[in-house]
Amino acid sequence: MSEHRRKPPNGGRAGGGGGRRRAPSGGGYGSAAAGGEYGGRAAARRTAGGGGGGRRRAPSGPDGYTGSRSGGYGGGGGRSGGGGYGDDDYGRGSRRRYQPPAKKRFIDYPRSDRDGLKRWLPSWKQVLGMCVLGTACLIGLVGIGLSMVVVPDIAKTASAQSNVYYWSDGTQLGTSQSEYNRQIVELGAISADMQNAVITAENATFYEDSGIDPKGMARAVFNMAKGDSIQGGSTITQQYVKNAQLDNQAQTLKRKAQELLISVRVGATESKETILAGYLNTANYGRGAYGIQAAAQTYFGIDASKLNPHQSAFLASLLNGPGLFDPQAYGADKARNTERATERTQWILKRMTEVKVKGSYPLTPAEAAKYKGLPKMKKYIPGAGLSGQLGYMAEMAKAEAITKLKEQGVSEDQFNRGGYEIHTTFDKKRVDDLKKAVEEAEKKHLNPKKRSEDKYLQVGGASVDAKTGRVLAIYGGPGFENGWYLNNARNGNTPVGSTWKPFTLAAAMEYGTYKTDGEGISPESVYSGANDLLIRKNNGDTVPGPPENDPFRQRNEGRASYREITLDKAMQKSVNSTYVQLGWDIGHKTVEKVTNGLGLPGVGKYSEHNASWFLGTSTPDAVTMASAYTTFTQGGEHRAAYSVTQVKKSGAALPGFDKPKPKQVISENVANNVTKVLNNVVKTGTASKMTSEFGWDPNRPAAGKTGTTDGNASAWFVGYTPQLSTSIVLSRPLNDDIRKKDPAILEQLSKDFPSHLSMRGVAGDPSVHGGDLPTEIWTNYMEHALKGTKIEPFAPALPIDNKIYGGGAKKPEPKPVQTPEDKKPEPSERPKPGKSDGGGGTCPDPLDPACWGTTTTGQDGGDTTTTTDGGTLGGITPTPTPDPTPTAPDGGLTSTGGDTTTTGGGGNGSNKGGLFGGG
Q1: Helix H or strand E encompassing 703
Q2: Contacting residues for 666 by C-beta, under 8 A, at least 6 apart
């Protein structure tokens, strides 16, 4: 190939040398043998692109980039020759590898001598160095922490302040404090049995361990990471440290870390005897007792040095939570607490025979076997220093405050140690008014010395501001100082009877029945009100009832019977059969939707198919019932009742005490219609004595409902005005004192509610109804409580047009065209109410039971006897009952020729359905 056809790109004249032999370093015109301009073609090809075309790598160029086989940056030409610039930036085909700088960094991370992922993986030297450094820092931090923490001061820990309660106007209501002086005692003044019981139950390795439980702490941290509740330390040392932190009981990691550091220092600097004495002197044993000496005096009336193994085991069981193990804890389930305490006490006694404390067994099996059940304890009187209603109000406010403070990290133990200001909603004047109304009624009607039935009657009451939900007054009983420790205003153990019926009516007007497909029905809807009404499910099947699943029939109070009656009239007369069938037509769950929204108990596990639930088998307390009824005068909005407005500590208000927010439970017009119906109850129904006998001002609108339960176990009246809602309940609840003091009285037990004595014969009445004493107390209180306030009307109720005929009621047939021969008689000729013309005469209101014939009432064994003769309804003469009529199942008299005859001796309850819920 000729030279003019192919020239070397950069060889020849400008090349630095293209031959194998070393050329002059300067390049230029060389000889052909040296790879100059006239060199051979092969040499030219080898030198193309720069100075060197040889195989050996040229010297490094600037910044660490080396030459290449195809020519370097400034490298040599042949194998060792000097080179020139290549035809790329740094030579064709250059690898361009980055060389590390000559001097390495102190911490070579990312690692400069590695590529890709390996650059980010630390070396073993780096890992080891970080571990050593981390351990050193941790040791340093722990050392600093230990030097800063302070060992608890037992004297300071055992001291406590009073909690102060205030009326709504800011004046002091009272203070609560420990009944006993808090006394610190040396370990030698605490019985060895008590020391051993605590060690065997709480920390068997107390004398051997270092004072902390690493596993327990790790478990607590793990639970915190999962979001579970934070667990406390498991050793006695850690529990003592926890008790000592009076001002910080928050369940946080910071506090747990602080607790751990203090425990380590206490375990390292204090003797085991000092730690054990500190724990026993600071622990909470319930009943306001802090420290073992106060506990020994509170429960057994002895010094701590005299506690025997049985007493010691019981007190040790309380360390797991007095509210769970003290049988007399305020507001607790006595039976369940007794069961738990017995089980725990016996377990501790058994442990005392198995665990060696300081090398020996503290108790022999034979000695432990002597102690059965629980030791005998002193009678507990809560609220010492707060007499009358003050004690009940303080306990009620305390329970509410503790519930809300727990959400802020403040424990009940911390609250009980005092220093808190509790501002309540209680109005002093209204509390006095309610107390006076109860005492006047008791003085007027009760005489326990002459009538045994008047013994043990208890009254409960609550008054709630209808517009805000503030609890203004309660009546809890005769007072702690008189031996009644249960707050009757908060006693959720008394059935409410027919005061439950308005909730069923509200559900009917809001959601309708299975016949209306969700459309609410009118209170003018018509149902059967027959006594012994056969109750049916929505599919037409009969509801099973006892005994042996016989078809359930609902009996009315006094066995009163009504053919067809509106829901409004049935509420006024408190007709049980109407509202039981209505409830089934609505459905348990639908009614429960309303009651749940009002803060009332639900159907319950075993009550979903219980017909009597619609008549008030539930047991909400007086405060809850008064609160629920406020919804009807507030356009369907429910405001939960509350008694605490603010809690302060060291002068600073604590969070969590905002006013409850209103919640729309039923529509406004439904609420107004319920009020309209309950206003009729007051005017002409079972509560009509308010105006006719008890002196209620008829110009002041009021609404309410009476309630009386089976066996006369309780009697209620819950009523309201636009400003105030008040509930009153009477009952004779049993307690252990009554059972022990007067066992013969157990013959008066209510057969349906054996936790209550029957009120039959109280105040000389065969049966105490809600329209009697409860309504009288309500009226007297409300007159004084509302004195000087403006008379306000209820909101008007718009008609609900959806009127139905259900529950056995039949829609009247069209009236036939009248001829002169069957013209209606003039008004003067019409039968008077309660009379029949003996023929086909009609009455102005065919739904009025008075049109059905003569009604007579009397008393027979405390029950009302009602007889209805053969009247007519709507011009239609009923078919006479065949003769003879079968004997009534309850043993009552027989009836012939009339529509309905119900007479009766015997009790109220039977397989026909009880009288539960009567007015």
Answers
A1: strand 703-708
A2: 506, 509, 510, 594, 597, 631, 636, 674
- Which structure tokens are listed for 565? 């009656």
The position carrying tokens 């596990």 is: 605
463 contacts 434 by C-beta, under 8 angstroms: yes
Q: Which neighbouring-strand residues pair with 357?
A: 360
Helix, strand, coil shares, percent, the chain, to 5: 35, 10, 50
Cβ contacts of 849 within 8 Å, gap of 6 or more: 529, 562, 563, 565, 855, 868
The C-alpha atoms of residue 861 and residue 353 are separated, in whole angstroms, by 62
DSSP 756: E
**pLDDT for the residue 900:** 36
- The half-sphere exposure of 826 on its side-chain side, counting CA atoms within 13 A, is 1
Query: Which residues, listed in sequence order, are joined to residue 725 by a DSSP beta bridge?
Result: 464, 720
Residue ranges with strand state E in 491-561 = 526-529, 533-534, 544-545, 550-551, 553-554
Q: How does residue 873 score in pLDDT terms, banded at 50, 70 and 90?
A: very low
CA angle 886, 888, 892 (to 5 degrees): 125
The residues of the chain that CATH labels 1.10.3810.10 are: 155-380
In terms of Cβ atoms closer than 10 Å to its own Cβ (0-12, 13-18, 19+), residue 137 is exposed
Q: In angstroms, rounded to a whole number, what is the distance separating the alpha carbons of residues 681 and 177?
A: 47
Instruction: Name which residue leads in pLDDT, 740 or 692.
Output: 692
- Measure the CA–CA gap between 324 and 326, rounded to whole angstroms: 6
CB atoms within 10 A of CB 146: 14
Rounded distance between C-alpha atoms, residue 249 and residue 230, angstroms: 11
Residues of the chain within CATH 3.40.710.10 domain(s) are: 384-410+421-492+619-809
Task: Kindly give, in sequence order, each residue whose CB lies less than 8 Å from that of residue 763, ignoring residues fewer than 6 positions away.
Answer: 445, 446, 454, 772, 773
> Which three-class secondary structure state does DSSP give residue 335?
helix
- Structure tokens belonging to residue 373: 């059940």
Mean pLDDT of 615-625: 95
Q: Which amino acid type is present at position 569?
A: K
Model pTM score: 0.66
CA dihedral sign, ordered 223, 227, 231, 233: positive
Architecture of domain 384-410+421-492+619-809: 3-Layer(aba) Sandwich (3.40)
| 735 DSSP β-pair partners | none
Q: Quote the pLDDT of residue 833.
A: 43
Query: What are the beta bridge partners of residue 545?
Result: 550
CA angle 368/373/379 to nearest 5° reads: 120
Query: 3-class DSSP state for residue 265?
Result: helix
CA distance 5 to 873: 134
- What is the rounded distance in angstroms from the CA atom of residue 489 to the CA atom of residue 393? 10
Distance CA 571, CA 726 (A): 19
- Measured CA to CA, the distance from residue 154 to residue 183 in angstroms comes to 11
Using CA atoms, how far apart are residues 779 and 433, in angstroms rounded to an integer? 11
For residue 547, is the peptide bond before it cis, meaning its omega torsion is within 30 degrees of 0? yes
Contact between 584 and 537 (Cβ < 8 Å): yes
- 385 vs 836: which has the higher pLDDT: 385
The answer to whether 776 and 694 have CB atoms below 8 angstroms apart is yes
Query: From the DSSP assignment, how many helices (H) and strands (E) are in the chain?
Result: 25, 23
At 865, is the secondary structure helix, strand, or coil? Answer: strand
- 155-380 CATH, one of 3.30.460.80, 1.10.720.60, 1.25.40.10, 1.10.3810.10: 1.10.3810.10
N- to C-terminal Cα separation, the chain: 130
Per-residue pLDDT of 515-546, as tens digits, reads: 998 899 999 999 999 999 999 999 999 998 87
Of 452, 393, 799, the C-alpha closest to 623 is 393
Long-range CB contacts for residues 99-107, cutoff 8 Å, separation at least 24: 99/64
**Inter-axis angle of helices 773-785 and 428-445, nearest 10:** 150
